[in-house]
Design a protein that fits this description.
6 strands, histidine biosynthesis, Pol/histidinol_Pase-like, two-stranded antiparallel ribbon, alpha/beta, about 160 residues, amino-acid biosynthesis, 5 helices, hydrolase, Histidinol-phosphatase
Length: about 160
Amino acid sequence: MEVFAMTEHMPRDEEDLYPEELEINTTAAGLLQLFDDYYAEAVRLRRAYASQIKLLVGFETDWIRPSSLKLTEDLLNKYQFDLFVGSIHHVRTVPIDFDQPKYEEARRVTGGTDEKLFEAYFDEQYGMLQALKPPVVGHFDLIRLKSDDPERSFKQWAG
């Protein structure tokens, strides 16, 4: 390898903490501190190994709700990144890749079918792409992960 990119998920709002984070009393401020620590270590590693490998430092977005835009902009203004990855892990603020019950909840809130959920996912993906214009898009088809038929063709649905 000549180039390696390091990315960490961006901090999230308090209302978007995952159940296991709440169990150990994680806070939004704690996620921000963890991210600050990640950035400092990533930059240290980039300097330490500069003669051996090009290390790119970046982050992965969590596009969840309107406040995700400000959280992303704040990170881009605070640090100098080589790249960032635009990603969606939630639909209508419900995680789609956490576990099957959360996926089913997301399906319910979008109309009760995978077709409606996929439409909502790609609509939110499009909104993220327009707002952030990320240089890299992460797991564009993550919505497949917990679906009833992960190998299905998107072409079967008009929407």
